[in-house]
Amino acid sequence: MDSIRRSLLGQLARLSAGAALIPLASVASAGINSQPPRREGDPTKRYGMVIDLRQCIGCQACTVSCHIENDAPLGKFRTTVSQYEVEHQDTGELATFMLPRLCNHCENPPCIPVCPVEATYQQQDGIVVVDSDRCVGCAYCVNACPYDARFINDKTQTADKCTFCAHRLEAGLLPACVESCVGGARIIGDMRDPESQISRMIAEHRGELMVLQPEKNTLPQVFYLGMDERFITRPLAEPVALEVLDPHGKEMGYEFHGH
Amino acid sequence: MNSMAIELLAPRYAIAWYPWAVQYFFLIAISYATLWLAAPALVFGKNTWLPTARLAMLACLTTTLVAPVALLADLHQPLRFWHFYAYATSSSWMSIGSLLLPLYVVGVLLLGWLAWRPALQANRQAPGLMGLIARLLSFGAAPTPRAALVLVGLATLALSTGIMLYTGAELAVVKARPLWNTVWLPPMLVASGFIAAAGLVLVLNRVSGMRDLTSSGQMLKVLLGACVVAGLVAGSWFLDGINANVGSVAAALDSVRASPSWRSTALWGGLTGLALFGAVLYLLTRPASRRPGLYAWAWVLGLVAIHMGWMFRWVVLMDVQHVARNSAGFHHYGIPAGSSGILGIVGTFGLWLAAVLMIDLLIPWRQARQGGSAADVSPSDSNAQPDAKSVEGAPSHG
Description:
The complex is a heterodimer. Chain A is of the alpha+beta class. In chain A, about 20% of the residues lie in helices and about 20% in strands. Chain A has a three-stranded mixed β-sheet, with helices on one face. In chain A, strand 11 and strand 12 form a beta hairpin. Chain A is globular and about 50 Å long. Chain B is mainly α. The longest helix of chain B has 30 residues. The radius of gyration of chain B is 23 Å and the shape is globular. Strand 10 of chain A pairs parallel with strand 1 of chain B, so a sheet runs across the interface.
């Protein structure tokens, strides 16, 4: 991807971070592929998350604690931290870049209108959840999410995703990933409360916050501080885990890239 | 900023739709396209299209029966299918499709029954199972009004456009998969559906022993037309997006540039399409005297056409799911052996073959008519026993 396009997307990422914060109104309408009305949850709140990448050390404590808290099947993640090694080609300097990923609880979530049975819906507090008793497991939402935040849970055979640990928020607790974050990089809170930590951080860093894949017009509500605009879309990187195939083309395992 | 990045750690993202989806999209496309191939004779009364209509109706009814099975199998919770009707959702194309599909299936079944009823009535005295089925299914001796056929046919044709629209739109609205997110995908699905359907009728024309020359000529013309439309759609899609930085064409070019397997797929698809078009054009432009000999081989082109229709859906539904969205590189995909892979693919085709054989054994589909009564069905109306002299070496069948 050329640098002009990258920086354009970077601009867009910043703009939409700002734009998403102004009117947090529901955009429900009746047309095909438009957002159905939100239901349940506290209408006086709008949960969001700021991830301060300057504090993330890539320890994956969030990944592990989420896995334990939410009993996700092995190999599937409600949240995880992508890690990249970036090398400056002139100086040879090396740096590591950590990118925690989770559901963005978008203001315009593309996963919701596609659900044929309204099993997945957005609460009035902005949290996107799945009713696993209603879900038919058609996996349409898994394909519709540009962030790969959804998966089919092998145990329940229904769609699964990050819920901002809504069950913990309800009990006055922090989400597992936030609570376990070593550097305090994840800040969750009510963006409608001007006194909340997240609101104060957003006010302070408004110009620097970025969101992922802004061009998809999903208006994500997970904002990254200290983000490198080269990583807001699919990273232009060499994949490190090369698959080792046997003579029949069947995968035998991974091999790390020699560097 | 000159820098190079290496991805150290990223999860592997599994595919969400299995080959069942390919089978559904393939079978339902054959279903709606063969319905339109059966329509000239059955609905609009064009007698020259009657042999084609007989073959097309067999293909249409069997694929219509099997397609929903594949669709159901792609759900991770198939027993919850009733949720589609308990919680219908106007915002979802899939939900709209779930309402259209049963109506369409009923329409096709009704149309098939109306077309086959006079022959069923003529078969009431037949010995054994065939007679029993004929007595059970013919519902009395009253003649089948032509108007009923036209009415049911028109309604089913209308429903079939709904199926074309929803299957295409369902994919085209998904912004998260840029390759799907284009208005050119739905028309391409329809065009490639007609390619595969015409191909299947050509093959059925051969294996059923009907070997109808007129039908082969008609199907070759349909193939030619569908190839031209597919070419135009593909060209428009390409020109529409060639200058865009993001979107369907940009994503396709990225994939072709970065992946050898995408390169070979694109090359194979393009070359096969051109070869098919060229071969069909060649057959259609031969002098009339040479046609019988050449048309006897049209079924080979039929197989190529079926391959095109199926491969297009495989690439669109399976390969596109392997284009990584949040990690570097390409996912490797080995088709699993079990029900979410090869068994599913083979099983669907096996079920379809079983449906074709059951109908061939028990239903006089070769004498399908545009309405009427048992008296109208004469043995000469049937192409069941081909003249041994005109088709040398034909396998005895039926």
